Task: structure prediction
Amino acid sequence: MRNAEKTLRGGFTSIRDMGHSGQSVFAVRDAINDGLIEGPRMQAAGELIRPTGGELAGWMQEEIEQALHVAAICDGPADCGRAVRASIALGADTIKVATKGDLAADSPSQFALEELIAIREAAHRKGVRVTASGFSTDSINLPLAAGFDGVVHGTYSDTETFELLRENKAWFIPTLLAARVVREMAEDPDSRRSDAWREENLSIYHGMVASFRAAMDAGVQIAFGTDAGWRPHGENAEQLEQMVELGMTPHDALLSATAHAAAAIGWDSEIGAIEPDKYADILVLKGNPLEQITLTRTPLAVIKGGSVVVDNRDD
Result:
């Protein structure tokens, strides 16, 4: 609840929570919608769809996972379709799939193509979008080949990635801010991390930066996403500054976090632009962000649905 409030006060009036252990995130989303607490409009995936023994298996001890009957764990096409339906029944209004098995560039996807197709079919049958969490090239490209709506991280993308993104009109969502944080951790001389850990995470940073620049050159659809939590919640706008530093125009960076992000989550008929019949979500800044993108980090006022939720103006 506190993080939701911080996110709204940081200028983000609508978000997509792409992974949460347990079901409390659904209660937070519903409480915001009911006006009981302050926060952004929210889509929530809940538990990530993942295979038995795969990545994220260590979120909880095995006996606890078994006791809780985590519905998102699945094996085989039929079971993976069930996992999607179970997640939606629990409250998910978007589906995220952990296709990456680890952080290496050459690791295979955790799921086979047939399983990914079953996941996509089950989600789309319910009118719900499905996004992959992919680091390695295979864990990025295989879900795109299965018809997924987008990929988050996209660390080690290649030419095929951008061809699939264009072919499927899917969204590329690089989490550059998280990559910046792990680079800072890897470069910290006082950190007690191992040399192998430092090398791996520096590779992740440089891989994601290279993929982001290649995606811009390829002209694919890029939406804003930060993997929030690596920086304190509410500081999401730092990534806009980072995107500009890496070569994106301020105009395109702002579009990635407004109209393009709205389209990526399927809410572009309601949010993402100041237009008739859309929610009056407005960020009031001290100057022109097209000239100084850093202004987005310190909004003077935040208006959500026509209501002023933050007002730091002097007059």
